[in-house]
Amino acid sequence: MVTTMDDRRAATAEQVIAAIAGDDARLREDQATAVAALCEPSARVLVVQATGWGKSAVYWAATAIRRSEGAGPTLVVSPLLSLMRDQVAAAGQGGLRAATLNSSNIDAWSSIEAELAAGEIDVLLVSPERLANPGFGRRVLDRLAGQIGLLVIDEAHAVSDWGHDFRPDYRRVSDVLRQLNPETPVLATTATANARVTDDVAHQLGASTLVLRGPLARSSLQLAVVDALSPLERFAWVVDQLPDLPGSGIVYALTVSDAKRLTAALQAAHGDAVPVAAYTGDLESAERERLEDALRDNRLKALVATSALGMGYDKPDLGFVVHVGSPPSPVSYYQQVGRAGRGIDHATVVLLPSNADAGVWDYFATATIPDPDQVERLLAGLKGYGPDEPASVPALEAETGLRRGRVELMLKQLAVDGAVDRVDRGWVRTGTDWTFNSEHYDGIIATRRREADIMRAYTRGERCLMQLLQESLDDPSAQPCGRCSVCLGSLPAPLRGAPSAETTRTVSALLRGETHELAPRKMWPGGAYGSRGRIGAGELAEPGRAVIYADAPEWRDVVRAVFARDAPAPDELKAAAVQVLSRWRQSWSARPEVVVSLPAAGFPVLTRDVADHLATVGRLERADLTVAGAPGTDLGSGEEAAFWRDAIRPDADCLHQVGGRVVLLVADASSSLWPVTVAAAQLRAAEATAVLPLLLHRRP
After folding, report:
1. Is the pLDDT of residue 1 over 70?
2. Cis (ω within 30 of 0) for the bond into 134?
3. What secondary structure does DSSP assign to 184-248, as a single string?
4. According to CATH, what is the number of the domain 7-213?
5. Would you list the DSSP string of 411-422?
6. What is the DSSP letter of 75?
7. Neighbour tally for 445: CB within 10 Å
8. How far is Cα 172 from Cα 591, in angstroms, rounded to an integer?
9. Predicted pLDDT of residue 518
10. Which whole number is the average pLDDT over 81-108?
11. 221-356+458-500 has which fold?
C-alpha cells in the first residue's frame, strides 16, 4: 500500500489543512500516511487516535485530492448532528462543499440531492439511521452506487458490538461496502477502540486494512476522583465548585432526570451569575444546536448533559468535564472526557462516583442483548405481514405485547442478522432463520462487566488514572501521568473533597420542593388487554403528582428504607405528601372527598398509612383497593394492563364510597403507571366524578 504522496498531492493536502487549522498547520506523519494510502484504489484504512489528534483532517485532505483528480463525492457516516454541523463548517473553511441530510433539514433534502446528482457537493454527511432508511437508499445510495469517491466511517467503534457504543444501524455500512465500486477507498476513524474492537472493525473492512494506532494519553487533562460522596452530596459538590472550575465545560449525569434536577439546583443557587442549561436526548434538534452554540460561545458556564452530548461536539477550549456518576465503561468515559482540553494546555476532569452507579451499570450490561423468547414472539408477530402490507412498530407492539422501544431495538438487531428487512412502510421477514448466539452474547456481557470492574478500580484510585484509561484501550504506551489525583496523592487545587453542609441542606430542600407531574396515560394498549385506542373521557385519570421521582438523590436513603419492607411510612414521607397536596390544590378541578389506597408495588401497610394520614389532615373519607398477586417482569404494555385489570379488586364498600365523589388515589410505586390508569378507569366506572393520582414513588 502506498504511504507517501507526490508533491502535487502533498501541496493540495497542506493547502486544505492550512485553511482549516491555520497557516502553520501541517499534517502529522500518520495523517500524511493515511491520506497517501486513501489516494490509492481499494485502500482500507483504520485510524485509532486520541480525541483532538485530527482524524477529520485526514478525510478533508483525501477528499480534496481525490476530487481534484475527478473522483466522486465523499460519503461520511457520522453519529451525531453536532458533529455534522461542525464538519460542514470545517469543510467550507477548507474550500470543500459539504452538506448533510438529517431530521433537522428535511426541507432542504430535495435541493441537496439535486446538487449531489449534479456533482456540486464534495462531501455528504449522513447518520447510520439514515443509511437504514429505504427511501434514502433508493433515492441517494442507489444513485451514488459506483460513484462514491471515498467512504468514511466516523466513530467506527460503533460498528462493533464489542464496542462501548454499538448501534445496530451502523451495521448498514456493510450494505454500502457491498455496493461500492471495489476501487473506492474506505477510511474508519475512532478514538475509543481497544485491541478487540480494532481487530473486529479491521476485519469488517477487509484483510488488507492499514491500522494506524497512536498513543492515547492526553497531556492537557488533569484527572481527579472525588470519592465517598452520597448522591445528594454530589449535587451539592457541583453547586459549590462550579463557579471555580476553569472556563466553561460539561457536567455529565447518568440519567435525564438527574440532568434536569441538577440544572434546577444550580440555577436556584447561582442564577444568571453562573448560567447553565440541561442538555438531554429529548430536546428538539434546534434547541440542541442553540445550547451547543451557547456553550461554544461561552455564554453558558456549563451544559448539564446526558451522553446525548458526546461524540462530535467540538469546543477546543472546553475547560472542564465533571461526571456526576460513573459511566459503565472506561472506554465511554475516555470518549466523554476527551471533549475537554483539545485546544488548551490544561483542563480539569472530575469523577464523582457513588455506589448507586452500580445499578445503572448492570442495566447497560444487558440492555441491548436480545431475549430469545421475545425475538421468537416478534418473528411470530411478523408472519402475517408481507411486502404489500409490512408491519409497523405500533402494530408489532400490539401483536406481541412487547414494549415499543424493545420492538424497535430487536428489529434493528434482526436486520443486522438478515432475519428481517425494513421496507418503505414497515418491516417484513426475509425467510432467513434466526438463532441466538449465546456464546457471543455471553462474551459481550462478560466484557461489559469487566469494564465495570475497571471503572471500580478507577474510582478507588488503584493506580494512575490516565494510565488505567490507556490500558483499558490496550495502549502500549500507557504510563503514569504524574498529574492526576492519584499521582499527586491529593485533589489538585481548587477542588475540594466535600460540599458544605449548608449547601447540602439547601439542595435537599430545593429538590424535595419540586413538583413532579404525572401525565395520565391516554391510550389503551391492545394486545392481551383487548381494548385498544383512546381512553374515554369517562375512564381517564386527571393529571397526577409524584412525591419522589425516579432515583432522586435527596430521597435515596428514604426510598431504600421504606421499600425494604412493608411498614408504616416515616413522618418525613407523610409530611412531603401533604406538601405536594398543598401545592397541587391550586390546580385541582375539584377538591378530593375520599382517599383510596392502591398497593401497586405490594406495600399495603405503607400505602394505607399515608392514605390515612392524608384523610386525617384533609378531613376526607377513606377506602381501599386490594391487589391479587404481582405482575411478572418485563411485561409488554398489553400484558401489564391486562394483569392490573384482573388483579385490582374494589370491594362493595369502596365502590359505594366513590360514587359521585372526587377521589384522591394514593399508590405506593410504579414505573409504567398502568396500575394507576386501570384503577382510575375502575373507579370512574363506579361513578367517581374525578380521580387524582398521588404516587409515592415514580420509579425509573
Report:
1. no
2. no
3. --EEEEES---HHHHHHHHHHH-TTPEEEE-----TTEEEEE--S--HHHHHHHHHHHGGGSSS-
4. 3.40.50.300
5. HHHHHHTTSEEE
6. E
7. 12
8. 56
9. 94
10. 78
11. Rossmann fold (3.40.50)
Amino acid, res. 83: L
Q: Which residue has the cell 462487566?
A: 449
The span from the CA of 504 to the CA of 235, in Å, is 8
Contact 562, 570 (CB under 8 A): yes
Most confident among 163-177, 409-423, 586-600, 646-660 (mean pLDDT) = 586-600
What pLDDT, in 10s, does the model give residues 421-436? 888 889 999 988 999 9
* pLDDT higher than threshold 80 for residue 19: yes
Contact 153, 190 (CB under 8 A): no
Fold exhibited by the domain 371-435:
Arc Repressor Mutant, subunit A (1.10.10)
- The C-alpha angle 184, 430, 380, rounded to 5 degrees, equals 145
Query: Rounded distance, CA 416 to CA 418, Å?
Result: 5
> DSSP assignment of 495-550, as one string?
--SS--HHHHHHHHHHHHT--EEEPPP-EEE-GGG--EEEPPTTTPPPPEEEEEET
Where b means 16+ CB within 10 Å and e means fewer, 410-429 reads bbbbbbbbebbbbeeebbbb
Question: C-alpha cell of 324?
Answer: 456526576
Cα–Cα separations (whole angstroms), residue 263 to 248, 270, 300, 303, 548: 15, 11, 12, 8, 18
Answer whether residue 171 shows pLDDT above 80: no
Q: Are strands 594-598 and 621-627 parallel, antiparallel or unpaired?
A: parallel
How many percent of the chain have pLDDT more than 70?
A: 97
Evaluate if residue 640 carries a pLDDT over 70: yes
Q: Give φ, ψ of 576 to 5 degrees.
A: -65, -40
- Among 103, 161, 149, smallest CA distance to 124 is for 149
3-class SS of residue 351: strand
Residue 27 and residue 14 in contact, taking contact as beta carbons nearer than 8 Å: yes
Three cell numbers, residue 118: 449534479
Angle at 212 between CA 211 and CA 215, to 5 degrees: 130
CB-side exposure of 289: number of CA atoms within 13 Å? 11
Per-residue model confidence (pLDDT) at position 651: 83
Question: Pairing between strand 648-650 and 621-627?
Answer: antiparallel
Cell digits of residue 577: 405528601
Pseudo-torsion of CA 486, 492, 498, 501, nearest 10°?
A: 170
Return the domain boundaries, the chain.
Answer: 7-213, 221-356+458-500, 371-435, 513-698
> Going by C-beta distance under 8 Å and a sequence separation of 6 or more, which residues neighbour residue 52?
218, 316, 338, 341, 342, 343
CA distances from 299 to 274, 275, 308 (A): 10, 8, 20
pLDDT at 81: 60
What is the Cα–Cα distance from 159 to 168, expressed in whole angstroms? 8
Which one of 3.40.50.2020, 3.40.50.720, 3.30.930.10, 1.10.240.10 gives the CATH number of domain 513-698?
3.40.50.2020
Give tens-digit pLDDT for 554-566: 998 899 999 999 9
Phi, psi angle pair for 252, to nearest 5°: -90, 140
Q: Same topology for domains 221-356+458-500 and 371-435, yes or no? A: no
Q: What residue has cell string 457516516?
A: 77
More confident residue, 611 or 426: 611
Question: How much is the pLDDT for 600?
Answer: 96
HSE at residue 443, side-chain half, CA atoms within 13 A, is: 8
